[in-house]
Write a structure and sequence with these properties.
- There is one protein chain.
- This protein has 21 helices and 5 strands.
- The strands form 2 sheets. Strands 1-3-2 form a 3-stranded antiparallel β-sheet. A two-stranded antiparallel sheet has the order 4-5.
- Strand 4 and strand 5 form a beta hairpin.
- Helix 10 packs across helix 16 and helix 12 packs across helix 15.
- The N and C termini lie far apart (112 Å).
Length: 498
């Protein structure tokens, strides 16, 4: 690759990378300090209101120290979201948004953390990690059985030598300084995991957008991408990022591997040199596996959700409507390009624009709702308890509700006497004690447990004010075999028996 191509590549990266933009921003020190303060050591996401409150407290402290930071935490978060430093998501467990650093922000935080690293003697630790990985790569990628067998035999001989040395008691023990150094190196590697997860999630979301764009750009239903989705191929899960993450996810969720990692962590923290670790380092060791499992589960849920959404986008044929809209937009853009050479922006066009139904209002016209307006400021009055009169309670209930029990008893009594009864028959035998409510209740019962017959009838009742009322209704006859009435008749007979 030539120097010119490298320059153009870095120019593009400077223009597109949120991490680079963060590092060259005017308030880079403030942004990095605040993000590192609240999104470090496993914390990848915070509820938006909680982050606003934390930032407000930090901004107050910075203003008292002389920094010119006039906005609120919410205002700065809105700027950081627009700049690509923070990512806003909806929470699955609560009805509120969450905020988390983007992969670019994690990269900038990691870069600045590396500049400020306090570890100076890392040569041996990093060289050990590199040599171990190179040895495993050279062995596992060797297709020749002879050389691979020779490498395994050499490893076995080395293990036999170490076993002999341990049995004789002549073996080196890692001293305190070197053990602390390796511990710090492990935690440094672990601190890069949140950024890795953020990059994987960003790659999966970018892949999802690209696949949808390919589906919209393909003609008909014979496109390669569209056909793969129709056949059930998981294009997101089978991508490079998807396969790499799935391998990590399967490994981190393996019960045997998780148990082994927990045992190693307990062993390390039980060594004498662990007393020289800071409280934060020991806490990070304790939560190392849990944080990786939680973060991996979230990324796996995102990958699964994107795969399902893409499959539903295709199988529901929603892509057809998107294709139609895309064609209309491109057609409008093409027509605009065609006329731009012959018309000036201020020329009057012979076109009548149809107004849409949306009304546009000024923000100043909006009125905020103050929850305090609904608060009761007067003290709650406590009334003395008293004795309840059941007759008064029944009277109050009858004033607001229809007494269907009384009406059902009246219908049953009328049916026992005459064998057949209409609403008018019941009211002649048993006057309406609730006025119009009794008449309405009888009509409801007749509709539920009766049937209409030809003709009409007149019904009468007395209103609450003592005025006689009369109405003409369709004739409805009650069903004498209905359980609602026969059960009442049977109960009356039992009560009357000696």
């Amino acid at each position: 690759m030539s120097a010119t191509s490298d320059v153009h590549r870095f120019l593009d990266l400077r223009a597109d990378s949120a991490g680079w933009a963060l590092l060259r921003s005017d308030n880079a020190a403030v942004v990095l300090a605040l993000l590192s303060r609240h999104f470090d050591h496993g914390t990848r996401r915070l509820p938006a209101p909680e982050l606003f409150a934390l930032l407000d407290a930090d901004l107050l402290e910075l203003r008292e120290a002389g920094h010119d930071l006039p906005r609120t935490g919410q205002g700065y978060c809105a700027d950081w979201v627009r700049s690509g430093f923070l990512l806003r998501r909806t929470s699955q467990a609560a009805r509120e948004e969450t905020l988390e650093p983007t992969d670019g922000a994690f990269a900038a935080m990691s870069f600045v953390s590396g500049l400020d690293a306090q570890i100076t003697v890392v040569t041996e630790s990093r060289l050990t990690t590199l040599s171990t990985q190179l040895q495993a790569l050279a062995r596992d990628s060797d297709p020749r059985s002879e050389s691979r067998l020779a490498a395994l035999l050499a490893e076995r001989d080395e293990l036999d030598r170490q076993i002999t040395a341990v049995q004789s008691g002549d073996f080196p023990v890692l001293d305190g300084d070197r053990a602390v150094e390796r511990s710090a190196e492990i935690l440094t590697l672990a601190s890069e995991v949140p950024g890795d997860f953020a990059r994987v999630r960003a790659e999966l979301e970018e892949l999802n957008r690209n696949l949808r764009a390919q589906i919209l750009d393909e003609d008909g239903d014979r496109g390669e991408t569209l056909g793969d989705v129709f056949r059930g191929v998981d294009l997101i899960g089978q991508s490079d990022a998807g396969r790499s993450f799935t391998a990590f996810y399967d490994m981190i969720l393996d019960p045997a591997r998780s148990s082994q990692l927990d045992e190693w962590i307990d062993t390390v923290l039980g060594r004498p040199f662990a007393a020289r670790l800071t409280a934060d380092q020991r806490r990070r060791f304790r939560t190392l596996l849990t944080e990786m499992e939680t973060a991996a589960s979230e990324v796996h849920a995102t990958m699964t959700s994107l795969s399902r959404s893409l499959r539903h986008f295709v199988q529901s044929r929603n892509y057809e409507e998107h294709r139609r809209l895309q064609k209309l937009l491109r057609s409008a853009q093409q027509r605009a390009v065609d006329v731009v050479g012959g018309l000036r922006p201020f020329d009057v066009l012979d076109i009548e624009l149809v107004r849409i139904g949306m009304s546009i209002e000024s923000v100043a016209a909006l009125k905020l709702h103050n929850p305090a307006d609904d608060l009761v400021t007067e003290p709650v009055q406590t009334q003395p308890s008293g004795v309840v009169d059941l007759a008064d309670l029944r009277r109050l209930v009858r004033e607001s509700e229809i007494d269907f029990d009384e009406l059902t008893d009246n219908v049953a009594a009328t049916l026992r006497t005459h064998g057949r009864a209409s609403i008018g028959d019941v009211l002649r035998e048993h006057p309406a004690t609730q006025g119009l409510a009794s008449a309405v209740g009888l009509m409801v019962l007749a509709t539920r447990h009766g049937h209409p017959v030809d003709g009409t009838e007149h019904i009468e009742w007395v209103s609450a004010s003592g005025v006689s009322r009369r109405a003409t209704i369709r004739r409805l006859v009650f069903d004498p075999t209905a359980d609602e009435f026969t059960s009442r008749t049977a109960r009356t007979i039992e009560e009357a028996a000696p």
